[in-house]
Design a protein that fits this description.
Radius of gyration: 30 Å
Strand order of the largest sheet: 18-19-22-23-24-25-26-27
CATH topology of the largest domain: TIM Barrel
CATH class of the largest domain: Alpha Beta
CATH architecture of the largest domain: Alpha-Beta Barrel
Shape: elongated
Largest sheet: 8 strands, parallel, barrel
CATH superfamily of the largest domain: Glycosidases
Number of strands: 34
Structural class: alpha+beta
Amino acid sequence: MRKTSRFEAYLDDYNLISIYLSTSFYNGESKTFFIRDAHGKLSPLSISQQTTSHDYMKYILLINDESITIGDYYEILEEHGLRTRLQYGLIVRTNRFNDSFYSDRDDFGSQIINGNTRFVLWAPTANNVQLQLFQKDDTKIVPLVKEEKGCWVYELEGNHHGLQYLYLVHVNGSINETVDPYAYGTTANSARSVVIDFDQYDVKMNDEYLPPFKKTEAVITELSVRDFSMDKSTNIENKGKYLGLIEKGRVGTLNNKVGFDYLLEMGYTHVQLMPVYDFATIDELNPKTFYNWGYDPAQYNSLEGSYSFDPSDPHSRIQEFLTVVSTYHRHGLRVIMDVVYNHMYDMAMSSFEKIVPYYYFRLSDQGAISNGSFCGNDVDSSNAMVRKFIVDSVIHFTKHYHIDGFRFDLMGILDTDTMNTIVSEIKKIRPDSLIYGEGWNMPTMLPESSRATMFNMHKMPNVGFFNDFYRDHVKGPTSVDLKWAQGYCLGDTNYIDAMKASLLANTRNHFSVKLFDEPDQSINYVECHDNMTLWDKIKEACKEDSKEERIRKQKLVNGVLAVSQGILFYHFGQEAARSKMGVENSYRSNDEINKVDYARTVQYQEIVNYTKDMIKLRKEYPIFRFESSAEIQKHIKFTHLDHNALLYEFQDVEMYVPHENVKVFINPTKHHLQYPLDSQYKLIANEAGLLNFEYTNKVYLNPLSMVIVGKVKEVESSYIHEFNKC
């Protein structure tokens, strides 16, 4: 509550009013209070409690709950004749309010229904809602009609695709001008909402080109629309734009493939786009003035305009993004959206707070704002209509843009019921969608048992989680104060048990920490947009290494990722030793730091080719992506080697691959190692990448490398013997 004027009154429950009376006014003392309705009827209120603060006196007043109609206008009067508007306060957070005003209607926002344009806004505490329509040179204001469950409705005859509008919401004594939080379209810089009819966009979405897949077959790469094409050394035309994601035939100054063609060659199955909904801190009409990743939501259901060829045209961004998704699908690539439903850029200025104050953001019983996101305004997904908004929002992107999955930023701010509802509803539309997120346990005002964290993974069996255990033990800790610390693959072989746990997607109790029940819950990664890149981390943690050794470590980590159980995730550019010049948190850094530097794909082509080979190997060998923990338990064992090198072994796997036994030797040390094999083995891969027609009965393990061999079948073994005799 504000407590900024002499006299304030809030309805905090159906039978409870909180009064704040300034001590500068009669010392804040009043013996009697009255409530007056819009018809002038005056009723006395009884004082239940009275407390004193430095600058105000707080009173708790009791009221008959049947005498209040939510949304109606009331005033509170005190004994000296001072009066104030009764505001709807924490009552909106009660279970009774949620039950009374939950609406399951599916036409919120502005939609074309039966040829007419319908506007629907949920605003149960408003006493009036008006619609401001901007038709060519004419502006008019029309009233909405209040229907059941706090829904306000207006229907305009005809299809008004492209019509711009705003709401004027009369609530708690203010008239709040606001965009429509459900709107699918917006003008530049979130100025006005726009009616959108998706039937007007003629884009074939090419779903039929998407190959069937199982979760652990996913090879995800994360990229930013802006970073992907900003490199000045390329001839990509639409730099920093949606269309820059799909330009073909583009090259760098070294005549190297860049952008879309380069992306396709890597073999990824999914592209995870950093935020593309409308975010706040970029001036869409002057997009190069500022830089931001986009974790500052302004409007969830509308697209970001700075990535559009024409931000002033509300249709341009929609047409372009549909074209991007369509093109990716045509080439067999699925598209995942990074979504940030856990907080907004500015709570006070958000349409949510302007329409239903105190409802959409998580507050304590005393009105304090939850700050588990460290952005000062945690979204309260446990409130029924907040949960519905989030679910409706992901349904919108799934239906209208054919999005193939969602990555949830700070997912631990949200609740488990919301995440399970999302999975259930999205699977009805696109059954093979991937739903995953950051399952960190954030200090939000929500019981830990209800938070969508990885420690509650058993409550969300169909949700994946970024595996920070994997990240911190394979690469090394990401925090700035521990940038010197090495993980197993960077040289600290004391983490050998943690390495084993990581290779198994933390699905077994035998080694270190069990985090997940099944491998498809683990998103294995060492680098993403957050924190240092892997290359920058290696430079900090391994300062005594030569450049050749750093390259070998980058390859080793990329290769180990590809043979780890779980879901594979690479940051775009990681395969080319991407660097951000040591910047740990580049969310506001310039394009020079954040861009994908395509010259590095030539400079570090050795790493690029190796990573590409390892992705191909993962696709060809199902043993590196088992679907169940039971298969992991049955077929995998480990052996400690000299100097804490590791043998990661697959037994009895001829039903999956053309080998009875596959051995993966991992050597994060600077020692040359060699081991005899029990029979003839095919040399599948080493630090040079995939190998063909090479066989051996002894493994030579070079420093900072991984070697993979497969046991030759008896028939093949005799053929090799005869071949060698020749």
